[in-house]
Protein backbone atom coordinates (compact mmCIF):
# COMPACT_ATOMS: atom_id res chain seq x y z
CA UNK A 1 0.00 0.00 0.00
CA UNK A 2 1.27 3.46 -0.91
CA UNK A 3 1.31 6.18 1.79
CA UNK A 4 -1.82 8.30 1.29
CA UNK A 5 -1.10 11.75 -0.15
CA UNK A 6 -1.58 14.58 2.38
CA UNK A 7 -4.64 16.60 1.29
CA UNK A 8 -4.55 20.33 2.09
CA UNK A 9 -7.40 22.78 1.50
CA UNK A 10 -6.00 25.89 3.20
CA UNK A 11 -3.62 28.39 1.54
CA UNK A 12 -1.55 29.09 4.66
CA UNK A 13 -1.22 25.43 5.54
CA UNK A 14 0.09 24.63 2.05
CA UNK A 15 2.52 27.56 2.14
CA UNK A 16 3.77 26.47 5.57
CA UNK A 17 4.35 22.90 4.44
CA UNK A 18 6.41 23.91 1.39
CA UNK A 19 8.39 26.50 3.36
CA UNK A 20 9.09 23.83 6.01
CA UNK A 21 10.45 21.53 3.28
CA UNK A 22 12.71 24.37 2.17
CA UNK A 23 13.93 25.09 5.70
CA UNK A 24 14.73 21.39 6.07
CA UNK A 25 16.99 21.65 3.01
CA UNK A 26 14.71 19.49 0.87
CA UNK A 27 14.33 20.23 -2.84
CA UNK A 28 10.66 20.34 -3.83
CA UNK A 29 8.63 20.13 -7.03
CA UNK A 30 5.11 21.21 -8.02
CA UNK A 31 2.64 19.67 -10.47
CA UNK A 32 -0.39 21.97 -10.97
CA UNK A 33 -3.44 20.18 -12.40
CA UNK A 34 -7.20 20.54 -12.84
CA UNK A 35 -7.73 16.98 -11.61
CA UNK A 36 -9.35 14.24 -13.73
CA UNK A 37 -5.88 12.75 -13.64
CA UNK A 38 -4.51 10.34 -16.23
CA UNK A 39 -1.15 8.81 -17.07
CA UNK A 40 0.05 12.13 -18.47
CA UNK A 41 -0.32 13.85 -15.11
CA UNK A 42 1.24 10.92 -13.32
CA UNK A 43 4.28 11.12 -15.60
CA UNK A 44 4.73 14.68 -14.32
CA UNK A 45 4.67 13.41 -10.72
CA UNK A 46 7.33 10.88 -11.68
CA UNK A 47 9.43 13.56 -13.40
CA UNK A 48 9.15 15.72 -10.26
CA UNK A 49 10.11 12.79 -8.03
CA UNK A 50 13.21 12.20 -10.11
CA UNK A 51 14.44 15.75 -9.60
CA UNK A 52 13.10 16.54 -6.13
CA UNK A 53 12.97 15.25 -2.54
CA UNK A 54 9.32 16.26 -2.06
CA UNK A 55 6.50 16.55 -4.60
CA UNK A 56 3.32 18.60 -4.29
CA UNK A 57 0.39 18.62 -6.71
CA UNK A 58 -2.58 20.95 -6.93
CA UNK A 59 -6.11 20.15 -8.07
CA UNK A 60 -8.26 23.16 -8.95
CA UNK A 61 -10.66 23.54 -11.86
CA UNK A 62 -9.92 27.22 -12.36
CA UNK A 63 -13.07 29.06 -13.50
CA UNK A 64 -11.21 32.13 -14.82
CA UNK A 65 -9.52 30.21 -17.63
CA UNK A 66 -12.78 28.95 -19.13
CA UNK A 67 -14.76 31.05 -21.62
CA UNK A 68 -18.51 31.58 -21.05
CA UNK A 69 -19.37 28.91 -23.65
CA UNK A 70 -16.71 26.44 -22.57
CA UNK A 71 -16.93 23.28 -20.48
CA UNK A 72 -16.23 24.58 -16.94
CA UNK A 73 -19.41 23.14 -15.42
CA UNK A 74 -19.09 19.73 -17.08
CA UNK A 75 -15.30 19.43 -16.72
CA UNK A 76 -14.70 15.98 -15.12
CA UNK A 77 -14.22 15.97 -11.32
CA UNK A 78 -12.84 12.66 -10.05
CA UNK A 79 -11.24 13.57 -6.72
CA UNK A 80 -11.24 10.13 -5.06
CA UNK A 81 -9.60 8.49 -8.06
CA UNK A 82 -7.17 11.42 -8.35
CA UNK A 83 -6.05 11.04 -4.72
CA UNK A 84 -5.55 7.31 -5.15
CA UNK A 85 -3.41 7.89 -8.24
CA UNK A 86 -1.34 10.60 -6.51
CA UNK A 87 -0.76 8.34 -3.50
CA UNK A 88 0.26 5.47 -5.74
CA UNK A 89 2.68 7.74 -7.63
CA UNK A 90 4.36 8.87 -4.41
CA UNK A 91 3.08 12.44 -4.36
CA UNK A 92 3.64 13.89 -0.86
CA UNK A 93 0.93 16.55 -0.67
CA UNK A 94 -1.91 17.87 -2.80
CA UNK A 95 -3.51 21.30 -2.50
CA UNK A 96 -7.26 21.16 -3.19
CA UNK A 97 -8.70 24.65 -2.62
CA UNK A 98 -12.29 25.73 -3.12
CA UNK A 99 -13.08 28.78 -5.22
CA UNK A 100 -13.29 31.07 -2.16
CA UNK A 101 -9.78 30.09 -1.04
CA UNK A 102 -8.37 31.08 -4.43
CA UNK A 103 -10.56 34.09 -5.17
CA UNK A 104 -11.73 35.60 -1.87
CA UNK A 105 -14.01 38.63 -1.82
CA UNK A 106 -12.07 41.70 -3.02
CA UNK A 107 -9.67 39.73 -5.20
CA UNK A 108 -8.81 42.09 -8.07
CA UNK A 109 -5.24 41.56 -9.34
CA UNK A 110 -4.46 39.74 -12.57
CA UNK A 111 -1.45 38.94 -14.68
CA UNK A 112 -1.38 40.10 -18.28
CA UNK A 113 0.26 37.18 -20.11
CA UNK A 114 3.39 37.46 -22.28
CA UNK A 115 3.30 37.82 -26.07
CA UNK A 116 3.64 34.07 -26.74
CA UNK A 117 0.03 33.87 -25.44
CA UNK A 118 -1.35 35.86 -28.36
CA UNK A 119 -1.55 33.50 -31.36
CA UNK A 120 -3.45 30.18 -31.67
CA UNK A 121 -5.15 29.43 -28.32
CA UNK A 122 -4.98 33.17 -27.57
CA UNK A 123 -7.15 33.80 -30.62
CA UNK A 124 -9.51 30.82 -30.13
CA UNK A 125 -9.91 31.29 -26.36
CA UNK A 126 -9.80 35.02 -25.51
CA UNK A 127 -8.89 35.58 -21.86
CA UNK A 128 -7.89 31.94 -21.36
CA UNK A 129 -4.19 32.61 -20.77
CA UNK A 130 -4.87 35.58 -18.48
CA UNK A 131 -6.76 33.13 -16.26
CA UNK A 132 -4.01 30.52 -16.60
CA UNK A 133 -1.02 32.73 -15.73
CA UNK A 134 -2.87 34.42 -12.87
CA UNK A 135 -3.86 31.14 -11.22
CA UNK A 136 -0.47 29.53 -11.88
CA UNK A 137 1.39 32.50 -10.37
CA UNK A 138 -0.89 32.22 -7.32
CA UNK A 139 -0.14 28.50 -7.06
CA UNK A 140 3.60 29.29 -7.36
CA UNK A 141 3.14 31.61 -4.35
CA UNK A 142 1.06 29.11 -2.38
CA UNK A 143 3.52 26.30 -3.09
CA UNK A 144 6.87 28.06 -3.56
CA UNK A 145 8.80 24.99 -4.65
CA UNK A 146 12.14 24.84 -6.47
CA UNK A 147 10.68 23.48 -9.70
CA UNK A 148 7.36 22.99 -11.48
CA UNK A 149 6.35 20.49 -14.15
CA UNK A 150 3.96 20.96 -17.08
CA UNK A 151 2.97 18.70 -19.96
CA UNK A 152 4.08 19.15 -23.56
CA UNK A 153 0.54 18.36 -24.74
CA UNK A 154 -0.47 21.90 -23.67
CA UNK A 155 2.62 23.28 -25.37
CA UNK A 156 1.54 26.89 -25.76
CA UNK A 157 0.38 26.96 -22.13
CA UNK A 158 3.74 25.65 -20.98
CA UNK A 159 5.61 28.22 -23.08
CA UNK A 160 3.35 31.01 -21.75
CA UNK A 161 4.06 29.92 -18.18
CA UNK A 162 7.81 29.71 -18.83
CA UNK A 163 7.82 33.22 -20.31
CA UNK A 164 5.67 34.61 -17.47
CA UNK A 165 7.91 33.04 -14.82
CA UNK A 166 11.00 34.37 -16.60
CA UNK A 167 9.59 37.89 -17.09
CA UNK A 168 8.49 38.10 -13.44
CA UNK A 169 11.75 36.52 -12.11
CA UNK A 170 9.87 33.76 -10.27
CA UNK A 171 12.62 31.85 -8.44
CA UNK A 172 11.48 28.46 -9.76
CA UNK A 173 12.48 26.20 -12.66
CA UNK A 174 9.67 25.48 -15.14
CA UNK A 175 10.02 22.10 -16.85
CA UNK A 176 8.08 20.88 -19.89
CA UNK A 177 7.72 17.07 -19.91
CA UNK A 178 6.89 14.72 -22.81
CA UNK A 179 3.31 14.08 -23.90
CA UNK A 180 2.02 10.67 -22.87
CA UNK A 181 0.00 8.86 -25.54
CA UNK A 182 -2.39 5.96 -25.71
CA UNK A 183 -0.88 2.93 -27.52
CA UNK A 184 -2.56 4.05 -30.76
CA UNK A 185 -1.10 7.58 -30.52
CA UNK A 186 -3.97 9.63 -29.03
CA UNK A 187 -2.54 12.17 -26.59
CA UNK A 188 -3.77 11.63 -23.02
CA UNK A 189 -6.26 14.33 -22.04
CA UNK A 190 -8.92 14.70 -19.37
CA UNK A 191 -11.26 15.75 -22.15
CA UNK A 192 -10.90 12.36 -23.91
CA UNK A 193 -13.59 11.20 -21.44
CA UNK A 194 -16.10 13.26 -23.41
CA UNK A 195 -15.57 11.16 -26.57
CA UNK A 196 -18.00 8.46 -27.69
CA UNK A 197 -16.36 5.26 -29.01
CA UNK A 198 -16.95 6.46 -32.55
CA UNK A 199 -15.51 9.91 -31.76
CA UNK A 200 -12.56 8.27 -30.00
CA UNK A 201 -11.66 6.60 -33.33
CA UNK A 202 -11.96 9.82 -35.27
CA UNK A 203 -9.83 11.66 -32.65
CA UNK A 204 -6.85 9.64 -33.86
CA UNK A 205 -6.72 11.87 -36.93
CA UNK A 206 -4.90 14.53 -34.87
CA UNK A 207 -2.00 12.17 -34.26
CA UNK A 208 -2.08 10.91 -37.83
CA UNK A 209 -1.92 14.50 -39.09
CA UNK A 210 1.11 15.24 -36.89
CA UNK A 211 2.84 12.04 -38.01
CA UNK A 212 2.15 12.87 -41.64
CA UNK A 213 3.67 16.31 -41.07
CA UNK A 214 6.79 14.76 -39.57
CA UNK A 215 7.08 12.32 -42.46
CA UNK A 216 6.72 15.05 -45.09
CA UNK A 217 9.48 17.04 -43.40
CA UNK A 218 11.70 13.95 -43.32
CA UNK A 219 11.01 13.60 -47.07
CA UNK A 220 12.35 17.11 -47.65
CA UNK A 221 9.25 19.32 -47.53
CA UNK A 222 10.36 22.37 -45.54
CA UNK A 223 7.59 24.78 -46.55
CA UNK A 224 5.27 25.28 -43.57
CA UNK A 225 2.27 26.05 -45.80
CA UNK A 226 2.66 22.66 -47.48
CA UNK A 227 3.13 20.89 -44.15
CA UNK A 228 0.00 22.57 -42.76
CA UNK A 229 -1.96 21.59 -45.85
CA UNK A 230 -0.89 17.98 -45.39
CA UNK A 231 -2.15 18.04 -41.82
CA UNK A 232 -5.45 19.58 -42.85
CA UNK A 233 -5.92 16.91 -45.50
CA UNK A 234 -5.53 14.22 -42.86
CA UNK A 235 -7.73 16.03 -40.32
CA UNK A 236 -10.61 16.68 -42.69
CA UNK A 237 -11.43 12.98 -42.87
CA UNK A 238 -11.71 12.69 -39.06
CA UNK A 239 -12.63 15.87 -37.24
CA UNK A 240 -15.74 18.03 -37.39
CA UNK A 241 -13.94 21.39 -37.33
CA UNK A 242 -10.30 22.48 -37.57
CA UNK A 243 -9.51 25.52 -35.41
CA UNK A 244 -5.89 25.60 -36.47
CA UNK A 245 -3.26 23.26 -37.91
CA UNK A 246 0.05 25.09 -38.26
CA UNK A 247 3.82 24.75 -38.22
CA UNK A 248 5.41 27.67 -36.34
CA UNK A 249 8.49 28.83 -34.44
CA UNK A 250 8.83 26.62 -31.32
CA UNK A 251 9.83 29.50 -29.02
CA UNK A 252 7.61 32.41 -30.10
CA UNK A 253 4.85 30.40 -31.85
CA UNK A 254 5.01 33.01 -34.61
CA UNK A 255 4.58 32.00 -38.27
CA UNK A 256 7.63 30.89 -40.23
CA UNK A 257 7.86 30.15 -43.93
CA UNK A 258 10.37 27.33 -43.83
CA UNK A 259 11.42 24.82 -41.20
CA UNK A 260 15.10 25.70 -40.84
CA UNK A 261 16.08 23.69 -37.76
CA UNK A 262 13.31 23.22 -35.21
CA UNK A 263 9.62 23.99 -35.50
CA UNK A 264 6.45 22.86 -33.84
CA UNK A 265 3.29 21.51 -35.45
CA UNK A 266 0.18 22.43 -33.47
CA UNK A 267 -3.43 21.38 -33.95
CA UNK A 268 -6.75 22.32 -32.35
CA UNK A 269 -9.86 20.59 -33.65
CA UNK A 270 -13.37 19.63 -32.65
CA UNK A 271 -14.78 16.12 -32.60
CA UNK A 272 -18.48 16.56 -31.96
CA UNK A 273 -18.62 19.09 -29.13
CA UNK A 274 -15.22 18.09 -27.76
CA UNK A 275 -12.25 20.37 -28.45
CA UNK A 276 -8.90 18.57 -28.59
CA UNK A 277 -5.35 19.88 -29.02
CA UNK A 278 -2.10 18.13 -29.84
CA UNK A 279 1.37 19.01 -31.11
CA UNK A 280 4.69 17.63 -32.22
CA UNK A 281 8.18 19.13 -32.15
CA UNK A 282 9.81 18.91 -35.57
CA UNK A 283 13.47 18.92 -36.45
CA UNK A 284 15.38 18.87 -39.72
CA UNK A 285 18.21 17.07 -37.94
CA UNK A 286 17.59 13.31 -38.27
CA UNK A 287 19.66 12.71 -35.12
CA UNK A 288 17.01 14.56 -33.10
CA UNK A 289 14.25 12.16 -32.14
CA UNK A 290 11.10 14.07 -32.83
CA UNK A 291 8.59 11.69 -31.30
CA UNK A 292 7.59 13.10 -27.94
CA UNK A 293 7.66 9.68 -26.32
CA UNK A 294 11.41 9.96 -26.18
CA UNK A 295 11.76 13.73 -26.36
CA UNK A 296 13.98 15.28 -23.71
CA UNK A 297 12.08 17.59 -21.38
CA UNK A 298 13.16 21.15 -22.01
CA UNK A 299 13.77 23.04 -18.84
CA UNK A 300 13.98 26.73 -18.21
CA UNK A 301 15.36 28.38 -15.14
CA UNK A 302 13.67 31.76 -15.40
CA UNK A 303 16.45 33.52 -13.59
CA UNK A 304 18.92 32.50 -16.27
CA UNK A 305 17.41 34.94 -18.74
CA UNK B 1 33.53 52.62 9.79
CA UNK B 2 30.46 50.70 8.72
CA UNK B 3 30.93 47.57 6.61
CA UNK B 4 30.32 48.56 2.96
CA UNK B 5 27.02 47.29 1.56
CA UNK B 6 27.46 44.49 -1.01
CA UNK B 7 26.47 45.90 -4.42
CA UNK B 8 24.90 43.41 -6.86
CA UNK B 9 23.95 44.18 -10.45
CA UNK B 10 23.00 40.69 -11.66
CA UNK B 11 19.55 39.09 -11.19
CA UNK B 12 20.85 35.56 -10.60
CA UNK B 13 23.50 36.70 -8.15
CA UNK B 14 20.92 38.59 -6.08
CA UNK B 15 18.51 35.62 -6.13
CA UNK B 16 21.32 33.28 -5.06
CA UNK B 17 22.34 35.51 -2.16
CA UNK B 18 18.80 35.75 -0.74
CA UNK B 19 18.16 32.02 -1.24
CA UNK B 20 21.46 31.30 0.55
CA UNK B 21 20.28 33.44 3.50
CA UNK B 22 17.09 31.40 3.59
CA UNK B 23 18.95 28.09 3.47
CA UNK B 24 21.09 29.29 6.36
CA UNK B 25 17.91 29.82 8.41
CA UNK B 26 18.27 33.61 8.39
CA UNK B 27 15.16 35.80 8.25
CA UNK B 28 15.54 38.47 5.57
CA UNK B 29 13.91 41.80 4.71
CA UNK B 30 13.68 43.87 1.53
CA UNK B 31 13.50 47.64 1.02
CA UNK B 32 12.80 48.52 -2.64
CA UNK B 33 13.73 52.11 -3.58
CA UNK B 34 14.38 54.35 -6.57
CA UNK B 35 17.53 55.71 -4.88
CA UNK B 36 18.04 59.40 -4.02
CA UNK B 37 17.83 58.10 -0.49
CA UNK B 38 16.83 60.23 2.50
CA UNK B 39 16.01 59.63 6.16
CA UNK B 40 12.64 58.12 5.18
CA UNK B 41 14.30 55.30 3.25
CA UNK B 42 16.85 54.79 6.01
CA UNK B 43 14.04 54.39 8.55
CA UNK B 44 12.80 51.48 6.41
CA UNK B 45 16.26 49.88 6.58
CA UNK B 46 16.15 50.28 10.36
CA UNK B 47 12.64 48.78 10.54
CA UNK B 48 13.84 45.83 8.44
CA UNK B 49 16.90 45.36 10.64
CA UNK B 50 14.69 45.22 13.71
CA UNK B 51 12.63 42.37 12.29
CA UNK B 52 15.22 40.51 10.21
CA UNK B 53 18.69 38.96 10.34
CA UNK B 54 19.66 40.22 6.89
CA UNK B 55 18.48 43.30 4.97
CA UNK B 56 18.56 43.87 1.22
CA UNK B 57 17.67 47.08 -0.61
CA UNK B 58 17.11 47.71 -4.30
CA UNK B 59 17.84 50.87 -6.26
CA UNK B 60 16.16 51.12 -9.65
CA UNK B 61 14.51 54.14 -11.23
CA UNK B 62 11.77 52.16 -12.93
CA UNK B 63 10.88 53.73 -16.28
CA UNK B 64 7.53 51.92 -16.61
CA UNK B 65 5.97 53.74 -13.67
CA UNK B 66 6.61 57.21 -15.10
CA UNK B 67 4.17 58.84 -17.51
CA UNK B 68 5.49 60.34 -20.77
CA UNK B 69 5.35 63.87 -19.33
CA UNK B 70 6.73 62.94 -15.90
CA UNK B 71 10.19 63.37 -14.40
CA UNK B 72 11.88 60.05 -15.27
CA UNK B 73 14.87 61.64 -17.02
CA UNK B 74 15.47 64.27 -14.35
CA UNK B 75 14.70 62.01 -11.34
CA UNK B 76 17.70 62.45 -8.96
CA UNK B 77 20.40 59.75 -9.20
CA UNK B 78 22.83 59.87 -6.26
CA UNK B 79 24.31 56.35 -6.17
CA UNK B 80 27.54 57.06 -4.25
CA UNK B 81 25.69 58.89 -1.48
CA UNK B 82 23.00 56.16 -1.46
CA UNK B 83 25.58 53.40 -0.99
CA UNK B 84 27.26 55.31 1.85
CA UNK B 85 23.89 55.76 3.61
CA UNK B 86 22.98 52.09 3.16
CA UNK B 87 26.36 50.99 4.53
CA UNK B 88 26.00 53.32 7.50
CA UNK B 89 22.48 51.96 8.19
CA UNK B 90 23.73 48.37 8.22
CA UNK B 91 22.10 47.22 4.97
CA UNK B 92 23.75 43.94 3.90
CA UNK B 93 23.23 43.99 0.13
CA UNK B 94 21.78 46.28 -2.50
CA UNK B 95 20.56 45.25 -5.94
CA UNK B 96 21.31 47.92 -8.57
CA UNK B 97 20.21 46.56 -11.95
CA UNK B 98 20.34 48.39 -15.26
CA UNK B 99 17.27 48.61 -17.46
CA UNK B 100 18.33 45.61 -19.58
CA UNK B 101 18.61 43.38 -16.50
CA UNK B 102 15.03 44.23 -15.50
CA UNK B 103 13.45 44.42 -18.96
CA UNK B 104 15.44 42.20 -21.34
CA UNK B 105 14.47 41.94 -24.99
CA UNK B 106 11.19 40.02 -25.29
CA UNK B 107 9.90 41.03 -21.87
CA UNK B 108 6.11 41.15 -22.26
CA UNK B 109 4.31 40.18 -19.03
CA UNK B 110 2.68 42.73 -16.74
CA UNK B 111 0.59 42.75 -13.60
CA UNK B 112 -2.82 44.41 -13.71
CA UNK B 113 -3.05 46.12 -10.30
CA UNK B 114 -5.85 45.57 -7.76
CA UNK B 115 -8.88 47.86 -7.44
CA UNK B 116 -7.34 50.02 -4.70
CA UNK B 117 -5.08 51.35 -7.50
CA UNK B 118 -7.98 52.98 -9.35
CA UNK B 119 -8.81 56.23 -7.50
CA UNK B 120 -6.53 59.23 -6.79
CA UNK B 121 -3.01 58.43 -8.14
CA UNK B 122 -4.67 55.94 -10.48
CA UNK B 123 -6.63 58.80 -12.05
CA UNK B 124 -3.79 61.37 -12.02
CA UNK B 125 -1.10 58.97 -13.21
CA UNK B 126 -2.64 56.43 -15.63
CA UNK B 127 -0.50 53.29 -15.92
CA UNK B 128 1.64 54.29 -12.92
CA UNK B 129 0.52 51.45 -10.66
CA UNK B 130 0.77 48.86 -13.43
CA UNK B 131 4.44 49.80 -13.65
CA UNK B 132 4.80 49.77 -9.87
CA UNK B 133 3.23 46.37 -9.16
CA UNK B 134 5.00 44.74 -12.11
CA UNK B 135 8.44 45.94 -11.03
CA UNK B 136 7.78 45.25 -7.34
CA UNK B 137 6.62 41.71 -8.07
CA UNK B 138 9.80 41.21 -10.12
CA UNK B 139 11.90 42.53 -7.22
CA UNK B 140 10.03 40.16 -4.86
CA UNK B 141 11.09 37.33 -7.18
CA UNK B 142 14.68 38.54 -7.49
CA UNK B 143 14.98 39.02 -3.71
CA UNK B 144 12.53 36.48 -2.23
CA UNK B 145 12.85 37.67 1.37
CA UNK B 146 10.49 36.99 4.27
CA UNK B 147 9.30 40.59 4.56
CA UNK B 148 9.32 43.87 2.64
CA UNK B 149 9.07 47.45 3.91
CA UNK B 150 7.36 50.45 2.29
CA UNK B 151 6.82 54.03 3.46
CA UNK B 152 3.48 55.46 4.59
CA UNK B 153 4.21 58.64 2.60
CA UNK B 154 3.30 56.70 -0.57
CA UNK B 155 0.23 55.30 1.16
CA UNK B 156 -1.78 54.30 -1.89
CA UNK B 157 1.27 52.62 -3.40
CA UNK B 158 1.81 50.64 -0.20
CA UNK B 159 -1.86 49.57 -0.10
CA UNK B 160 -1.72 48.58 -3.79
CA UNK B 161 1.37 46.46 -3.15
CA UNK B 162 -0.21 44.83 -0.08
CA UNK B 163 -3.34 43.97 -2.06
CA UNK B 164 -1.32 42.67 -5.02
CA UNK B 165 0.85 40.50 -2.76
CA UNK B 166 -2.24 39.17 -0.99
CA UNK B 167 -4.16 38.50 -4.23
CA UNK B 168 -1.17 36.69 -5.77
CA UNK B 169 -0.32 34.80 -2.54
CA UNK B 170 3.25 36.11 -2.51
CA UNK B 171 4.84 34.35 0.49
CA UNK B 172 6.16 37.59 2.01
CA UNK B 173 4.95 40.04 4.67
CA UNK B 174 4.39 43.60 3.41
CA UNK B 175 4.94 46.25 6.11
CA UNK B 176 3.97 49.92 5.92
CA UNK B 177 6.27 52.12 8.08
CA UNK B 178 5.70 55.66 9.38
CA UNK B 179 6.40 58.72 7.26
CA UNK B 180 9.56 60.57 8.30
CA UNK B 181 9.23 64.38 8.34
CA UNK B 182 11.55 67.36 8.42
CA UNK B 183 11.45 69.19 11.75
CA UNK B 184 8.89 71.62 10.31
CA UNK B 185 6.58 68.84 9.13
CA UNK B 186 7.43 68.45 5.43
CA UNK B 187 7.36 64.77 4.49
CA UNK B 188 10.74 63.48 3.34
CA UNK B 189 10.73 62.88 -0.41
CA UNK B 190 13.39 62.48 -3.10
CA UNK B 191 11.44 65.09 -5.08
CA UNK B 192 11.96 67.75 -2.36
CA UNK B 193 15.33 68.30 -4.06
CA UNK B 194 13.49 69.93 -6.95
CA UNK B 195 12.14 72.74 -4.72
CA UNK B 196 13.66 76.23 -4.66
CA UNK B 197 13.97 77.78 -1.17
CA UNK B 198 10.79 79.77 -1.82
CA UNK B 199 8.92 76.64 -3.03
CA UNK B 200 10.25 74.70 -0.04
CA UNK B 201 8.45 77.15 2.24
CA UNK B 202 5.21 76.91 0.28
CA UNK B 203 5.43 73.09 0.29
CA UNK B 204 4.72 73.21 4.01
CA UNK B 205 1.09 73.95 3.20
CA UNK B 206 0.54 70.21 2.56
CA UNK B 207 1.43 69.37 6.14
CA UNK B 208 -0.51 72.36 7.47
CA UNK B 209 -3.58 71.20 5.53
CA UNK B 210 -3.33 67.69 6.98
CA UNK B 211 -2.89 69.10 10.51
CA UNK B 212 -5.87 71.38 10.04
CA UNK B 213 -7.91 68.37 8.90
CA UNK B 214 -6.91 66.43 12.02
CA UNK B 215 -7.78 69.40 14.23
CA UNK B 216 -11.22 69.87 12.65
CA UNK B 217 -11.96 66.18 13.21
CA UNK B 218 -10.85 66.48 16.84
CA UNK B 219 -13.24 69.44 17.15
CA UNK B 220 -16.13 67.23 16.03
CA UNK B 221 -16.29 67.77 12.25
CA UNK B 222 -16.90 64.28 10.85
CA UNK B 223 -18.16 65.24 7.37
CA UNK B 224 -15.47 64.40 4.83
CA UNK B 225 -16.63 67.14 2.43
CA UNK B 226 -16.06 69.76 5.13
CA UNK B 227 -12.70 68.26 6.08
CA UNK B 228 -11.61 68.28 2.44
CA UNK B 229 -12.76 71.89 2.07
CA UNK B 230 -10.68 72.87 5.10
CA UNK B 231 -7.61 71.24 3.53
CA UNK B 232 -8.20 73.00 0.22
CA UNK B 233 -8.51 76.35 1.98
CA UNK B 234 -5.10 75.82 3.57
CA UNK B 235 -3.54 74.51 0.35
CA UNK B 236 -4.77 77.34 -1.85
CA UNK B 237 -2.49 79.82 -0.11
CA UNK B 238 0.62 77.72 -0.74
CA UNK B 239 0.47 75.44 -3.75
CA UNK B 240 0.10 76.19 -7.44
CA UNK B 241 -2.37 73.39 -8.22
CA UNK B 242 -4.33 70.91 -6.13
CA UNK B 243 -4.70 67.50 -7.81
CA UNK B 244 -6.71 66.06 -4.92
CA UNK B 245 -7.29 66.69 -1.23
CA UNK B 246 -9.67 64.09 0.15
CA UNK B 247 -10.66 62.06 3.20
CA UNK B 248 -11.43 58.46 2.26
CA UNK B 249 -11.66 54.88 3.52
CA UNK B 250 -8.17 53.83 4.68
CA UNK B 251 -8.41 50.31 3.25
CA UNK B 252 -10.18 50.75 -0.09
CA UNK B 253 -9.45 54.48 -0.63
CA UNK B 254 -13.08 54.81 -1.73
CA UNK B 255 -15.13 57.92 -0.82
CA UNK B 256 -16.95 58.00 2.52
CA UNK B 257 -19.36 60.65 3.76
CA UNK B 258 -18.47 60.61 7.43
CA UNK B 259 -15.38 59.63 9.39
CA UNK B 260 -16.80 56.86 11.56
CA UNK B 261 -13.66 55.37 13.06
CA UNK B 262 -10.58 55.56 10.88
CA UNK B 263 -10.04 57.43 7.63
CA UNK B 264 -7.13 58.77 5.68
CA UNK B 265 -6.55 62.27 4.41
CA UNK B 266 -4.58 62.32 1.16
CA UNK B 267 -3.18 65.24 -0.81
CA UNK B 268 -1.46 65.61 -4.18
CA UNK B 269 -0.45 69.11 -5.23
CA UNK B 270 2.00 70.97 -7.44
CA UNK B 271 4.50 73.57 -6.29
CA UNK B 272 5.92 75.07 -9.45
CA UNK B 273 6.63 72.02 -11.63
CA UNK B 274 7.16 69.71 -8.65
CA UNK B 275 4.37 67.27 -7.74
CA UNK B 276 4.22 66.38 -4.04
CA UNK B 277 2.00 63.95 -2.11
CA UNK B 278 1.35 63.53 1.59
CA UNK B 279 -1.23 61.90 3.85
CA UNK B 280 -2.34 61.44 7.43
CA UNK B 281 -4.27 58.63 9.11
CA UNK B 282 -7.26 60.02 11.01
CA UNK B 283 -9.10 58.48 13.92
CA UNK B 284 -12.14 59.53 15.93
CA UNK B 285 -10.67 57.74 18.93
CA UNK B 286 -8.56 60.29 20.89
CA UNK B 287 -6.53 57.41 22.33
CA UNK B 288 -5.21 56.67 18.85
CA UNK B 289 -2.25 58.89 18.11
CA UNK B 290 -2.82 60.06 14.59
CA UNK B 291 0.51 61.73 13.95
CA UNK B 292 2.54 59.42 11.78
CA UNK B 293 5.71 60.08 13.77
CA UNK B 294 4.42 57.69 16.40
CA UNK B 295 2.04 55.65 14.24
CA UNK B 296 2.46 51.88 14.50
CA UNK B 297 3.51 50.29 11.24
CA UNK B 298 0.66 48.27 9.86
CA UNK B 299 1.73 44.91 8.60
CA UNK B 300 0.03 42.50 6.32
CA UNK B 301 0.92 38.89 5.84
CA UNK B 302 -0.66 38.23 2.47
CA UNK B 303 -1.11 34.56 3.16
CA UNK B 304 -3.34 35.32 6.12
CA UNK B 305 -6.16 36.37 3.84
TrEMBL record, chains A, B:
Q: How does it assemble?
A: Homodimer.
Recorded protein name is: Pantothenate synthetase
Q: What are the UniProt keywords, alphabetically?
A: ATP-binding, Cytoplasm, Ligase, Nucleotide-binding, Pantothenate biosynthesis
- Which one of the record's GO molecular function terms can you name? ATP binding
Q: What NCBIfam families does this protein map onto?
A: cyt_tran_rel, panC
Q: Does the keyword Flavoprotein apply?
A: no
The entry's beta-alanine-binding residues are 65
The keyword Ligase belongs to this UniProt entry's keyword annotation: yes
Subcellular location(s) per record:
Cytoplasm
Stretches assigned to coiled coil: none
Amino acid sequence: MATPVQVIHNVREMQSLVLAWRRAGLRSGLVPTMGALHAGHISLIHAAREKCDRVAATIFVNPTQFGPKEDFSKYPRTLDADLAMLSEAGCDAVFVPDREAMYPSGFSTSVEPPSVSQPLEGVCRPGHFRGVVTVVLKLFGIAPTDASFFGHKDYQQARVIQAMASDLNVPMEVHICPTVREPDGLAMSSRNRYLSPEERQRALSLWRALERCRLQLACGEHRTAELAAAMEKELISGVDAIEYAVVVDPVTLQPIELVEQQAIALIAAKIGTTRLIDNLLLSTDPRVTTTDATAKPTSGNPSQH
